[in-house]
Amino acid sequence: MPIEAYNDKVVLVSPENPDTKVSVLLYGATVTSWTIEGKQQLWLSSAAKLDGTKPVRGGIPLVFPVFGKSKADGFADLPQHGFARNSTWEFLGQTKENPPTAQFALSPEQANKDFYSKWDNGTNDFTLLLTIQLSPDSLTTTIEVSNTDSKSWKFNWLFHTYLAVNDIDDTLVNNLPGETCYDQLLAETYEEKAPAIDFNGELDRIYKNVSCDKLLQVIELGKVVHNIERHNLPDVVVWNPWTEKSAGMADFEPKTGFHKMVCIEPGHVHDFVTLEPGESWTASQVIKKGDAIKLQAI
Ligand SMILES: O=P(O)(O)OC[C@H]1O[C@H](O)[C@H](O)[C@@H](O)[C@@H]1O
């Protein structure tokens, strides 16, 4: 049984191993769980709301049409990270038996009305098509954004991926030295000098225009635990809320949970993508297993 559809979620199960599966909540089309042979790959807060009252804290929330808050015309009144993560998507069906693949869609008809109306006064016609593919050792999430309007409009996209780690104290992220970084906590732009990113306090950085040829790796005690490939997603947000920020988030539990996660968020957020009428834009993230450490210079 490669796919199980419920009222509120869809589960893809690997034909190779019943304990390799991915669960997608229709609310936000949020991946809330992904296991490989029973081992959880993503972090999900034990206090995450899965009932549509709040975006999911954990898994892979989808960020569209704005990352964070923006003062730009047409975006200023939108909630943080837009409305895709607070809208209930439509399950279109299974598009491939093996590897199990499913598609989900969002258009103005299904979008959260209160929030959608805040994007250019709710005048932008669009379609989002999300494809989720489960392979024995990887998960691919692909987004196609289409302009079905008679005028152009612009957007940000980002996969807000919460990766599971064993202990953030032992975790490094590689292949970012030399990249331009906007530190959201310092409100400063600088060149990353550290040979690898380590974590010893709150960290919230946007690495801009990182070549998609660069693989990003999450490494714990010298072992690669996640490889992140990006296609058409030039920016990478790295986030860990640490103690104080976690304490301030009601849906972040347990409060020590920041030890168990790191957000590596591939996106296009350094500027807006402009789509002309009839145009589409496609991008994807692939999270995969693989032991070899790959170091790539700038
Ligand atoms: O609390 P949320 O709206 O889900 O945002 C969670 C986080 O998302 C991104 O990682 C941003 O860079 C952070 O500044 C923000 O705190």
Automatic annotation (TrEMBL):
Gene3D superfamilies xrefs: 2.70.98.10
Gene Ontology BP, a term: carbohydrate metabolic process
Keyword rRNA-binding: no
Catalytic activity: alpha-D-glucose 6-phosphate = beta-D-glucose 6-phosphate
Residues binding substrate, per UniProt: 57, 80, 85
Pfam family, one: Aldose_epim
GO cellular component terms attached to this protein's record: cytoplasm
Domain of life: Eukaryota
GO molecular function terms listed in the Swiss-Prot or TrEMBL record: carbohydrate binding; glucose-6-phosphate 1-epimerase activity
EC code: 5.1.3.15
Keywords carried by this UniProt record: Isomerase
Root EC class: isomerase
InterPro entries linked: Aldose_1/G6P_1-epimerase, G6P_1-epimerase, Gal_mutarotase_sf_dom, GH-type_carb-bd
Active site: 160, 265
Function statement: Catalyzes the interconversion between the alpha and beta anomers from at least three hexose 6-phosphate sugars (Glc6P, Gal6P, and Man6P).
Family: Belongs to the glucose-6-phosphate 1-epimerase family.
Name listed for the protein in its UniProt record: Glucose-6-phosphate 1-epimerase
Species: Ogataea philodendri
Lineage, top ranks: Eukaryota, Fungi, Dikarya, Ascomycota, Saccharomycotina
